[in-house]
Amino acid sequence: MVLVLLSSWLACQNKTSAPFPTIHDLDSGKNKTEQVMIPFHNYTTYPIGEKEYSIAHSNFFAESSSLLLLWNATFGGGNSDCAFSVVQTSDGGFVLAGSTYSFGSGGSDFWLVKTSFFGVSQWSRTYGGLGNDEAHSLVMTNDGGFAVVGSTNSFGAGDYDFWLVRTDNAGNMLWNMTYGGPGHDEAWSIVGTGDGGFAIAGWTTSFGMVSGDFWLVKTDALGNMEWNKTYGGALLEAANSVVQTSDDGFVLAGSTYSFGSGGSDFWLVKTDDLGNMQWNRTYGGTSEDFGFSVAVTSDGGYAVAGSTSSFGAGVYDFWLVKTDSAGNSLWNKTYGGAGYDEAWVVLQKSNSEFALVGWTESYGSGNSDCWLIVADDQGNMLGSRTWGGTGNDYAYAAALLSGGYVLAGQTQSYGNGSNDFLLLEILEVSSIGAGGYGGGGDFVR
Known about the structure:
Helices cover 0% and strands 49% of the residues. The protein is mainly beta. The protein has a single domain, classed as TolB, C-terminal domain (Neuraminidase). The strands form eight sheets. Strands 1-2-29-28-27 form a five-stranded antiparallel beta sheet, with no helix packed on it. Strands 3-4-5-6 form a four-stranded antiparallel beta sheet, with no helix packed on it. A hairpin with an 8-residue loop joins β8 and β9. Mean pLDDT is 85; it is low at 1-61 and 431-445.
């Protein structure tokens, strides 16, 4: 799995300067067959409570006994495979999207894997050409199919282009569209819009400032571009997350080198329904701060998560910034230890608590482990759970379940290849409501 580079002067593995999600264990891959359906499954189940670890930091960071691993599953081949996105489907199962060097047509391909509720593989599909194609985000569509977005240099107009693939509920491609120019364009987030179309966010060197700008592309239900907008300054900006707001506008979150206080800051951009900027806010200190995820909160504001080296305890820490509806900071919290800790996802639960998901080098059992944090509505930590082995394990995506969480990413500790898709489910319980697990009952600590 390879994260495409913006240019020769920026490497995504440079933890001191990369404004993009950090991807590890790059694998050049080998020649692949022209195979488009590869069902492959390596299934591992751990009994509840078996994979529990003790953290020697402070009592605030003790592992929570109310966050229990139900099961985990890996999917992959002999090379490097990485999941970047996960959704729960109407049948209770899951679909993962990411990239594979083990299967498909080219260096790397989009890879979609469908599982049951317990992580048993049901089908998988690859999409791609002879070059490198990497899926970063997916959403379910109104007809039960999927819209998957990422980057491609197999198709399109330039070095890398946005690539949108639309499938039916069995993963069969219905159509695909590329968006881009002669430069380097990467899509990292997609959201279905109220009119049945899609909004896609990422960054571009084809349009705007040549150093790289936020890029927002709006399409209709068939992927035809309706409009696009860039946002940025003289230096580099990279959008990693987009949500639609109640006024049919959009909020994009990512990182900026052009504005703010330090080398890189969180950047939040609010637009109207046509992509015209209404306001923007930066959050950060004198060092490097990278925003990776944004969620609309129950009070009409926003929660932005990522990593910070300006604040906190270690090299980089999880950082959660809570804002009002105008983007003004209300409070912020860091979570982490002496090492490198990076939050990729923020979700708000129905009780206004927050879940943050990413990976940690400060805690756990290996070089890096998946890390889930649950915090109250003021960001105070309520519980945390790490998962991993002796190698490098990363959580890049998550979704809320009834009484728990599903995490997706990449594992080097388990599976068949140098890196495999990882899917794991965590149950949050101290007592189960009358609805039972998955039945809508309340879960309390």
